Every structure is written in C-alpha cells, then in structure tokens.
Amino acid sequence: MSLFSYSFTPTIMTTSTQTRKRFWLKQTPVVSTTSRPTCSTAPPDDISSLWDEALDAYKNSLGIDLRDDSTALGEQLARCTSADDIAAALQDTVKKFGDKRKGKKAAQTVRESLKSIVVGLKCLLDIGAEVASASAVPGGKGIFIALSILLQAAERVTARFDSLEKLFQQFQTYLTRLCVRMEGNLGSEARSLVVNALVCMLRAIMLATKIMGEGRIERFVKALFTKTSDVQDIVVELHDIVVEEERLAVAEMVVGMHEISVNLEDLRGTVDRIQDEISTAGRLCDARFDRLEKLVKLNQTPKKPPSIPSRAPDSGVCMRQAATELCSVLSMFNPEDRATVQRALALIYSLAANAVAYSDDHSMESVITTCLNPLQVLATFMPWAFAFVSLFAIWRCIARPLGFAPGRIVLVDVLGKTFVIEDDTFMSWERTHAFLVKNFTDC
Question: Structural domain tally of the chain?
Fold first, then answer.
C-alpha cells in the first residue's frame, strides 16, 4: 500500500563518496494501482506545495531538514528513483517498526502468554501493597510498590508501541481522506491544518525511526523514569487537528450553502424574468400567427368584383339634358379655362370607363365597355363632371391679391401732401433719416 501517489523529477547531487539521484516532487500526477483512493485526482500543484510547506515547517520546528542526506529518512529518500520507491521507503519504516516491536517468533509466543499474567500480577501487587501497609509489614509495601512500578514501566513501553502503531493507522486513514479532500479547493485555514497534520506525520516517522534505534533496556529505563509519552502527544495533536479540520469543513459547508442559496435566488429571479419574456414573446407570436392566418385565408378566398347597381336613366332624354347644361356652363368660361376644364373632363371620363370595366391598367376592356354600355359610363361620368366644374368655378371666384407693384410708391395724405417712396428708401438708417428730413422739415 502506498502512502503517496506522486511522480518525482530527479536532481543530481554530488557528495564526497558517491553521486546520488535525488527525487522530489514534480507537477505530474501518477495513477495508483491500488484499490485505496489516491491523490492522483487532486491538483498536483497543491499536493507539491503542501508537502514542501510541511517539510519547511518540520525543519523550522525541530531543526531537522528531511531533504538532507545526512538523516536516516533523507538517506532512504535519496536512493529512491520513482514514486513507488518513495512510498516503499515510508512504508518500510512502519514495517521495520512493527518487526522491531514483535521481535523473534519465540519471544512473541512468550509475550502473548505473559500478557494476561502481567495484568493480573499488577492488580495483585496493588492489592498486596495495601495489605502489607495495613498489616504493618516492615518494608513490605516498598517491595510491592517497586514491583508495581517495574510492571507499569513495562506497560508504558507496550502502550507506547500500541499508540505508535495506532498513530500510523490514523495517518493512513487521514492521508486517504486528504486525497479525497484535495479534489476541492483548500482555503488558507484548511491548508494550514493540513500542513500541521503532515508535520505530525513526519514527527511520528522520525520518532519510530528513533525508537527502532533504541535497545530494549534503554526503552525500559526511559519508561521507568519518565511518565510523559511523546507518542501520545502526537496522537492528541493529530486528533485536535482532525477535529479542527472537521469543524472548519462544517463552517466552509455553511458558507458554501449560503453562497449556493444566494446564487439560487439570483437564478430564480433570472428564470422569472426569462419566463416573463418568453410569455410576452409567446403572446406576440400568437398575435402574429393569427394575423398571418387571416392573410392566408384572405389570399385563398377568390376575389369577386363588387356589383355596382346600374345608374343608367330610363331614357336618353335626361342624358342629353345633362350634356346640354354642361356645355352651357363651359361656354361661360374664357377660352383658357375652357380648355383646362375640357382636359379634366376627358380624364374624368376615362376614369369612369375604367371604373365600370373594373380595369386598372387602361386596357381594351375600357374601350369595349364604353362602346357596349355607354349609358352606364355616362351615368358614372356625369356626377364627377358636375362636381369638378362646380369646384373649378368656386376656385375661379376666389379673390386674389394683385401683388406688389415694382418701382416707387406715391402716398397722398388728406392735406394733399405727396410722399414718394422708392424701393431703397428704408434700406438703411441714413436713407430713412434723409427721407424724414426731406419731407418733414417744413412741418
């Protein structure tokens, strides 16, 4: 199982003893072949920057640069040539820790058999200490207390290993969850928490490496005289980080839901506006379709000429009398006006013939209608002709001004004084002044 899914770019580093290929983070994701979710779906820039920040924070906190070949873990990483080698190096630390703790097969069997005995013996020693104290056995309580302390120290060593293994399992679970979390964007607060968690993981790996370098007696003596647990501190710190991260995720979820709600409200307003526009456009389209249907029906209906009732007189006497009266009216005009009226009457007669023949282009139908039905044409022509002659006579009777006479104007007042006004008399102030002086000096 791989803890990370990265690809690495090599950097050649030359030392005094040998040349090593050192592989660090590259901006290219690697597809994991395991069934566990990997970070291959996360943005490579974020993964690389988070890991670099964790290494920097670890260096600033403990003064150890894991990118240095002098450290045990750094030496392992320096020999790596691929992403799988990096993951194997980290996993190898966990495996060696487990093997170191289990010991040989025979020791494992004895340890499993003595585990229940140690627990019972501890309880018995605690009770024995109280009994020895109550019976006033000289030095009895001290012996029982010393044995109890030794067993408690052994328990603390075991608890330290248990906590460290549990911590590694928690880190594996956290990394799996982090790979899924990296599919979304990380804020500055969440990014800081992730960096702290990665620093805890590095500290745990370094602690496991340090524990594997200690002997059993050294670990027992340290547990005997020290009650503090550095592993438990990392467990508590990781738990606090996970809790804070979950709370921050809930807060970000609330903010995101609020933003979604606001966007939905805006979207609802936009949808309502679009629905109104669509409704208005639908009504306009319906009206235009109705109008189009009416036009189509109107075009499909065959056009029939309107029936005009015949206004032909019963006899030709009335026609002759009307023609005689029209001619007598025309004789009253001067030759110029008579010629104008005659041209207008000819146009009116042509229009009457076209109206009777239902022709708009002055075709032969008008001529045929005039020849075949002259009384109908005359019946249409006479009212138009008399109306035109009447309007023309009224127009000629309207008085018009004669206009302005060119040249000078002579004014004679009631006293007989004559004033001669030329065209340019009042063209300027000088001419007006001269006219007034000339005519009104003697007054």
Answer: 3
